[in-house]
Amino acid sequence: MNILFIMYDQLRWDYLSCAGHPRLETPNFDRVARMGVRFTNAYVQSPVCGSSRMSFYTGRYPSSHGAQWNGFPLRVGEQTMGDHLRRLGMGCYLIGKTHMVPDAEGMARLGLAPDTVIGARQSECGFDAVVRDDGLWGEGPDGFYDCKRSPYNEYLKAQGYAAANPWHDYANAGVDGEDIASGWFFRNADRPANIREADSETPWLTDRALEFMETAEGPWCAHVSYIKPHWPYIVPAPYHAMFGPGDVPPATRSAAERAAPHPVYAAYMDNMIARAFQRDEVRDKVIPAYMGLIKQCDDQLGRILDRLEATGAIRDTMIVLTSDHGDYLGDHWLGEKDMFHQPSVRIPLIIHDPRSEADATRGTTCDALVEAIDLCATFIEAAGGDVPGHIVEGRALTRFLHGTEPDCWREVAISEYNYAVTPMRAKLGLRSDDARMFMVFDGRWKLIHFEGGFRPMLFDLENDPDEFHDLGEMAHVRDEIARLYRHLHAWSLRNAQRVTRSEADLEKMRGRSARVGILPFLWDGSEVPAEATAKFRGKAGRDYTG
Amino acid sequence: MNILFIMYDQLRWDYLSCAGHPRLETPNFDRVARMGVRFTNAYVQSPVCGSSRMSFYTGRYPSSHGAQWNGFPLRVGEQTMGDHLRRLGMGCYLIGKTHMVPDAEGMARLGLAPDTVIGARQSECGFDAVVRDDGLWGEGPDGFYDCKRSPYNEYLKAQGYAAANPWHDYANAGVDGEDIASGWFFRNADRPANIREADSETPWLTDRALEFMETAEGPWCAHVSYIKPHWPYIVPAPYHAMFGPGDVPPATRSAAERAAPHPVYAAYMDNMIARAFQRDEVRDKVIPAYMGLIKQCDDQLGRILDRLEATGAIRDTMIVLTSDHGDYLGDHWLGEKDMFHQPSVRIPLIIHDPRSEADATRGTTCDALVEAIDLCATFIEAAGGDVPGHIVEGRALTRFLHGTEPDCWREVAISEYNYAVTPMRAKLGLRSDDARMFMVFDGRWKLIHFEGGFRPMLFDLENDPDEFHDLGEMAHVRDEIARLYRHLHAWSLRNAQRVTRSEADLEKMRGRSARVGILPFLWDGSEVPAEATAKFRGKAGRDYTG
Fold first, then answer.
1. For residue A359, with 0-12 CB atoms within 10 Å meaning exposed, 13-18 middle and 19 or more buried, which class applies?
2. A446 phi, psi to nearest 5 deg
3. Within 10 Å of residue B157's Cβ, how many Cβ atoms?
4. Which of A90, A225, A235, B9 has its CA 20 to 30 A from that of A130?
5. Does an H or E element contain B37, and which?
6. Distance CA B214, CA A536 (A)
7. Over chain B, what is the mean pLDDT?
């Protein structure tokens, strides 16, 4: 079996027709949902790209792997799905984005050169990179990410898109008369991107994925990782015109949220992104473009599915569709992601498992509390391995896919967010490690704990599914808050760094000291069988005691 | 300045005359105490050799570095004082014991060969090993530690001690007529070890240390790490006869402790080591030998001090005397270490700082709550560096040494113990990660939290300095328990794995996205200065939008 692990960037859980979107038809996402299980309660371990992805790839929480924000390198030696899968004989390949920053200082300390196989895998969070492209290309030596490595920009140049940074000037900009109409400006979001649709980012990456699948020798796990529908919000024709302001759902926001907001939430509601998305004209321009980008993703997914069906490979390919986090799009008076309301922390997750054991669950949904880190464990089992629980903190979803519920499952989903490098930390005057927040969600009650001495936030999603009413200061929910804090504390004491000793190792170690003759508890040896002490008896050599 | 970092193994805090021992005179320990500061409230991060030492060497808690018991390898890439000090131009050398087990699997994964400089340092927890000898030599392929590496055994063989394992047969055994009288049997503890005193372990290692100091080029940090007074409890003449049963203090134990003991404590009181030390004849044989071993350590320390004074090197040598944990010796009905009563978790710590800033504190004591991890930070400052607080969790003791109290200091000391591979876990029927306990001690109140659903233990050392009365179930101390749990929870949420990003890195990252042109919050660009968006404007190239 191969694994096609497709990730979209910033795709909200509810912008799919199979998840109930009222206007957006995504027949190809729905097609996979019909072939597999749609997990309706899936959450990322951090609502920010880099940190969330490192959790997907390592199967570990951000506070375990340490890469807690974009640009925090994943420490050298931290194991990822690539390490686990290759041990099981399955190659693990990257086609697209990871947001990985190598631990260059740690690699140098260990003498690992980036141009060796080991060094390259350390640099690409364990993947063998077929194509690495994170999008978001700046310019010059200070450009975002490493400007030397934009295969997409090189592709565009080869196609004749003449510019220093065609990623911006064509793929992510329209035209306004004779001028560039940058996709960075929301007012341009309804223009068509100035690019042939087939050359835009999503089809380009799809081509790379199809090329890979044509030639790759299995078993493989291919992480096909699209930058879209992440901003810049602009899409080529005909997708730019498929949706308009009339298709934009009303913002999920309430005046109650601004009445006496939690100080951290207040700081977020006051940032530049939030203030932009509080404007109706921004939502009316951006959301149709966002929907167009998703529609394009769906069409490109259709190409992949068609190919898999045509070749018959679909019969031995696990297909996973998910996202690294959502997008507020003005809900809760916010833009982007970063906090823990459902539009941000909840993700789409659809898994087609081709094995016959999964036949009974095809087309069903599963509402168990699922975490992003569970995929790493699921893939390890799919590759025929046992999940190394001393390293991977996620749990395999295999039993849900096969219709046999696990004996016991997690009671809460945890997500974390470190905002130490954001303007909100400065505004709130926090020490770096106090600029952290944690979500504990049991499916109904959602607690948000803040370091730095703030009160918690609490939402009751049963009675307040839109999360408008923060109960964090309400006396009548004190017991719920205390209960969720007990979960947080139990989690925070989890043993996440015993990574060099497996359960099997521990079993082997038990009693080893005595077996090798370390016996610091004997009066005269009569306490144990004679053979245990035989090697400590016998005739003395020369007597030096005098 | 050089650093002479001397560690004894299993040396109780109170078995020194400067700490008030009623019978044991340790003039050379006292001599260092007169030259420096004796820290009277110093605690290890784990009361077991390997884990405690990895905390000393990394400056991090066991749950941060992961090496939570003897034989749990320190994960590849985990930084130690060797890494930090070498960056500052100070060599870091090992002479003696570390209890380090390399992460062989991790090293292989990263392609690190043990016989390279980098690989050797990874194998020796960051030290350049002048001599590595952990003592406790078993026999055959199943021998304890790696039998190929006992420089001490090789030394003994070269001196004519004829045996497969002279470490046991001579250095750690007496003679009984014509037979070996093994030091593993407590009834032999009053016999002289069958070895010339100068060839026994403590003088042998002292010779190696003196050789090192004679030739080493500084600045250096030398970790001189004795195996003694750790068991086997047997010592050569004349030390074997210096103390007798009349010198043995009464056991610090009470019938009250056995009345309704905590289940984990009860399991420990019932293990073979505890049952041995509950016998008076064991204490009467073992403790005089233990005192003799310490007396020998003191004499050998005298040799080092004399040499440092004779050469004048004492004027630029920081001297640190400490231990990796204590020894119950029958107190609290226990033997060995493993739990958190003072005889186990509290350690001697004496620091001579040669700098003139320390003149005012010479001969004083300091009762601040000090942790073993503070030494790594102290050494980094002594080498002229700033403590990398994103990696090293300990805090430098420099200000205490220089008589200027830090502005704020820790309120509690934390220690941890993972007993997953001990018989107590099996007896209690625990999952491996439930076999963990944590101490939170504020100088008066000592809370012990157990994973696995047990109630906590609590001691009030002000009213019960001997720790006889476990208040863990008492209603009147509920607030104290809650308060200490708040400390535990705050500690457990500490950010211990953000090791690839320093505070300075975070400062540099703030605002970087906007600086490189990532601007996902603009309507038309008028929100920011024109130069911020200049590169996204200009004349469009060919129009592809059609």
1. exposed
2. -120, 110
3. 16
4. A235
5. strand B37-39
6. 38
7. 95
Q: Are A18 and A321 in contact (CB under 8 A)?
A: no
Considering only CB atoms, B185 lies closest to which of A74, A232, A523, namely A523
> Within the 249-278 window of chain A, which residues sit less than 8 Å (CB to CB) from chain B?
271-273, 275-276
Q: What is the pLDDT of residue A535?
A: 86
For chain B, give the longest Cα–Cα distance.
105
Q: Which residues contact A197 (CB under 8 A, 6 or more apart)?
A: A203, A236, A237, A238, A239, A296
CB B433 to CB A494 under 8 A?
A: yes
Contact criterion met (CB < 8 Å) for B73 and A500? yes
Q: CA-to-CA distance for B543 and A174, rounded, in angstroms? A: 9
Give the model's pLDDT for residue B140: 52
Would the CB atoms of B142 and A516 count as touching at under 8 Å?
yes
| Best of B134, B169, B516, B543 to mutate (most A CBs within 10 Å, chain A) | B516
Could you tell me how far CA A407 lies from the centroid of its own chain? 26
* From A79, A116, A537, residue closest to B179, measured CB to CB: A537
**With a threshold of 0.90, does the pTM exceed it?**
yes
CA distances from A39 to A328, A364, A387, B216 (A): 20, 9, 21, 64
Residue type, A433: D
Number of residues that this document lists for chain A = 546
The string of DSSP letters for A5-51 reads EEEESS--TTSSGGGT-SS---HHHHHHHHHSEEESSEE-SSSSHHH
Residue with tokens 């019969």: A315
CB A385 within 8 A of CB A88: yes
- Å from B499 to nearest chain A CA? 7
Interaxial angle between packed helices B478-492 and A478-492, expressed in degrees from 0 to 180 and rounded to the nearest 10: 50
B232 CB contacts (<8 Å, ≥6 apart)? A520, B172, B182, B183, B184
**For residue B161, how far is the Cα from the chain centroid?**
32
Question: What is the per-residue pLDDT for B510?
Answer: 87
Label residues B235-264 b or e (16+ Cβ within 10 Å = b). bbbebbebbeeeebbebbbeeebeeebbeb
Report d(CA B365, CA B374) in Å as an integer: 17
Structure tokens at A238: 């005909």
CB A7 within 8 A of CB A223: yes
- b or e along A81-96 (b: 16 or more beta carbons within 10 Å of the residue's beta carbon)? bbbbbbebebbbbbbb
Note whether B33 and B347 are within 8 A (CB): no
Q: How confident is the model at residue A149 (pLDDT cuts 50, 70, 90)?
A: low
Assess whether the previous peptide bond of A27 is cis (omega < 30° from 0): no
Tokens 């299980």, residue located = A37
B529 close to A (CB below 8 A): no
- A103 close to B (CB below 8 A): yes
| Contact yes or no for B50/B71 (Cβ under 8 A) | yes
β-sheet bridge partners, residue B224: B6, B95
What's the confidence (pLDDT) of residue B147?
53
What 8-state DSSP symbol labels residue A522? B
From the candidates B497, B513, B535, B543, which should be mutated to test the interface with A, based on the most A CB atoms within 10 A? Answer: B497
The strand pairing partners of A437, in sequence order, are A417, A450
